[in-house]
Amino acid sequence: MARIEFQHVDKRYSGAEGLAVNDLNLDVKDGEFLVLVGPSGCGKTTALRCLAGLEDISSGDILIGDRVVNDLPPKDRDIAMVFQSYALYPHMSLFENMAFSIRMRKAPKAEVESKVREAAQILGLEKLLDRKPGELSGGQRQRVALGRAIVRDPAAFLMDEPLSNLDAKLRVQTRAEIARLHQRLGTTIVYVTHDQVEAMTMGDRICVMRDGLLQQVGTPQELYEHPVNLFVAGFIGSPAMNFLTGRVAHDGAAAALALDGLQITLSGRAAAAARTCGDGQTLTIGMRPEHLDVATAHTSNAVRVPVLVDVVEFLGNDALLHATVGGTEVVALVPVARGVAVGDRVELAIADDLVHTFDPQTDHTLGNTAAA
Amino acid sequence: MTAVAAPLTTPRQGRRQGRLRRLFSRSTVNIILVVIGLLWLLPSFGLLVTSFRPAQDFFSAGWWQAIAHPFTLTLDNYRHILQTGGIGDAILTTALITVPATLLVVLIASLAAYGLVFLRWRGRDWVLVLIVALMVVPLQMALIPVASLYRSVGLFNSIPGVVLFHVAFGLPFAIFLMRNFYTGIPKDLLEAARIDGANEWMMFRRIVLPLGKPALASLAIFEFLWVWNDLLVSLVFLSGSSHVPITVAILGQLRQFGSNIDLISTASFVSMIIPLGVFFAFQRYFVRGVLAGAVK
After folding, report:
1. Where is the ABC transporter domain positioned along the sequence (chain A) (predicted)?
2. Which of B124, B125, B194, B196 is most worth mutating to test chain A (most A CB atoms within 10 A of its CB)?
């Protein structure tokens, strides 16, 4: 087990214009499950490869335990990596695949045997040890890749989108399996994914990246409740947060957001944020679909948004409403019992302390939404 | 009112037609393949039959009559070439040239291709371009300069000299073939091995070499056939030697007697049967190896 630290790490590929990883500072605690998440090309995989030693860093320091590992070859970093493609050796049996790393370290035969059997038992692969990877299903291959990492008993596991080749059902199962494995072994895991659901469900903490820059690090709940900017707000949460951008209109003590042809009266947190803006200044408000509901006569302390419903997706208990307001699409997750139909004009309401506010010029969160 | 035209064939008829068409096209291909096969096989078969016939028969009747009456096949020709004609020595010389040349080409090419694909070094792409460019250099161009070079270093009329020449001219294609095959090996495998603690040599020996087996087998067959069947290089570099390979020996027989077709056909058949055996032994890999690398 070990702590991992990135200190002002830059990575520039030769011939590339920008930095693939830009001044990354990140501290992964001992035994922590940290997820690096972001859209493709955001630098998350590059950061992981730098940590593994498969790429050289351009500047800064990477520490594993208390050692600076910048110049150490991958084999001396005491890490194990699970690849997106599994990277199983196709000509070797599962046993040989899992034994490869400790055999390279010249472990005694008995130790190889016992470690491989133990890992196989943890992952339910005992009966398959004589098979070759080509004879296995995707899920089994994935487990072998995990087994290969376990056998090494490393200071940290690095996982590069290990679930992206599995179908949806298997992905959910394996997700739980990896989480259980983490609880059992207690080893530090750095996990890369582009799937925010994976990130939210698995990570102790999540690190959101974009264009090589770290956007925010925090627990799933922190990121969900207090995103620091528009990008994190839109990336974390499914369905994604709705954004409405308009001009602030002050009317005495009250504040409103003027959109195309309509005004939304702000209250609570949103109004407080609006008061920090000048009259006519642009402001973006963010509303999570699951926080929106159809307004009733009893709704209070809420921001109300009148919309025209154009699509209703039935999900069982809830329905996903796709509606438009002032030319912008708004999605809301409401109970089916509300009985909203296509073509209805309804008022959606959101408790005013759940409204997020952003400065559209800087993309940063406004008001009292504390950065994690 | 719009009328919908009734389909001219029922689905079942359509399926049958499709099957017939497939059968026809498959049998056409098969017929063409059989014809090509026969065209190649017939002379070889003729050679085989001739090698078992007495010399005088050759001038009186074609080989296809040998099977008919009167039945006059003999092992004399084989006995003769193995005992007197120096063919045994020639086959040994050919093997002494072919086996080392093939092994060296396979070994060097597989290592060089590893360096070109999996190692990062300055000028790598230019070296590849150079190797590809060398593939178009005709062997004949180098005969005279290399011959004079060999004379000055004492390699002329020596088997190592011929081996060296074959290796040099076999390598560009060999490296190119192996490189193309290796590029199909996922880089993740090597990276996984690197993290697992393997050094470059272990990655080559434990991962790349076993995965490259089909390509290595095809390359070995190609190289073996080329060197075994070579006449020109041996003629230039070994004609003054007391030990000549079988191709030169057969030519020598032809020149000496002009008409001893019985011995020549026997020697030719012997010279043909060994590479044929090698080919059949590796045939399974060969087909896979030729396809491998073409489609990833």
Report:
1. 4-236
2. B196
How far apart are alpha carbons B79 and B84 in whole angstroms? 8
pLDDT digits (tens, 9 = 90+) for B22-59: 777 788 889 999 999 999 888 888 888 888 887 777 76
- C-alpha distances (whole Å) from A132 to each of A91, A115, B28 are 7, 19, 39
Q: How many residues does chain B have?
A: 296
Distances (CA, A) of B168 to A299, B133, B147: 87, 14, 14
Q: What angle do CA B76, B79, B80 make, to 5 degrees?
A: 85
Distances (CA, A) of B203 to A54, A81, A90, A100, B123: 15, 17, 14, 11, 23
Examine residue B70 and say whether the peptide bond preceding it is cis (omega within 30 degrees of 0): yes
Taking the Cβ of residue B125 and every Cβ of chain A, the question of whether any pair is shorter than 8 Å is answered with no
Burial B25-64, CB ≥16 within 10 A → b, else e: eeeeeeeeeeeeeeeeeeeeeebbbbbbbebebbeeeebe
Question: Which chain B residue shows the shortest CA-CA distance from A96?
Answer: B206
Domain span at residue B60?
18-65
In this complex, is the C-beta atom of B202 within 8 Å of any C-beta atom belonging to chain A? yes
Check residue B1 and give its pLDDT: 39
Residues of A in contact with B192 (CB under 8 A): 81, 83, 87, 89, 148
Pick from B197, B206, B210: which is nearest to A105 by CB?
B197
Q: What is each CA distance from A37 to A45, A173, A290, B4, B83, in whole angstroms?
A: 9, 20, 22, 56, 79
- Give yes or no for A107 touching B (CB within 8 A): no
**CA–CA dist B22, B24 (Å, integer):** 5
Range name among A42-51, A124-133, B71-80, B200-209 with the lowest pLDDT average: B71-80
Describe the crossing of helices B261-291 and B246-257 by its angle, rounded to 10 degrees.
150
**How far is residue B111's CA from residue A218's CA, in Å, rounded to a whole number?**
48
ipTM of the complex: 0.83
Cβ-contact A214, A7 below 8 angstroms: no
State whether the Cα torsion B159-B161-B163-B165 is positive or negative.
Answer: negative
Just give the CATH number of A4-235: 3.40.50.300
Domain count, chain B: 2
Residue B123 vs residues A14, A104, B116, B127, B265: alpha-carbon distances, Å: 15, 31, 10, 6, 51
Using a CB-CB cut-off of 8 Å, the residues of chain B touching A81 are 191-192, 195
pLDDT for res B67: 67
CA dist., res. A319 & res. B242, Å (int): 94
On whether the CB atoms of residues B237 and B170 are closer than 8 A, the answer is no
Full DSSP string of A318-370: EEEEEEEETTEEEEEEEEGGG---TT-EEEEEEEGGG-EEE-TTT-BB-TT--
- C-alpha of B117 from chain center: 25
Same domain, B61 and B146: no
- Asked whether the bond before A335 is cis by omega within 30 degrees of 0, the reply is no
Q: How far is B72 from chain A (nearest CA, A)?
A: 54
The CATH number of the domain holding residue B139 is 1.10.3720.10
Contacts with B206 (C-beta within 8 Å, 6 or more apart), sequence order: A89, A100, B193, B198
